[in-house]
Amino acid sequence: MAIHRGISLYSYQQSYYLGQLDLEGCVAAAAATGAKGIELIPEQMPVGRFPDPTPDHIAWWKDLMAKYNVVPTCMDSFIDFKLYASRRRNLTLQEQVKMMERDL
User: Which of 9, 53, 60, 80 is the most buried (most CB within 10 A)?
Assistant: First the structure.
């Protein structure tokens, strides 16, 4: 098995947030480097609605991967234990586990 280049879409976060690239633009830019693998960070660049993309959103993502001849190799996930900072409490361990189960 050969080693191939992969790129995290985190590399394009500034262009994404500034509106210079949409999600497809980020994938296209990554593919243009010769990368074959794509790391998605769905909390920052969601495919449809995060955390619940519709079947149409998932189909769009798969079509996007095929269009640019890349494959999803990783999905980054975070446990934001200070999600309720305004309530002055951290997430409980059970809440953190549920969040990770959701993402998996």
Answer: 9
Q: How many CA atoms, within 13 angstroms, populate the side-chain half-sphere of residue 100?
A: 9
pTM: 0.83
Q: How far apart are CA 94 and CA 90, in angstroms?
A: 11
pLDDT for 85 equals: 64
- Report whether 60 contacts 47 (CB < 8 A): yes
pLDDT digits (tens, 9 = 90+) for 4-62: 899 999 999 999 999 999 999 999 999 999 999 999 998 889 999 888 899 999 999 99
Structural contact between residues 9 and 38, judged by C-beta atoms closer than 8 angstroms: yes
Distances (CA, A) of 86 to 12, 89, 94: 30, 8, 20
- CB 101: neighbour CB atoms within 10 A? 8
Going along the chain, which residue ranges are E strands? 6-8, 37-40, 71-75
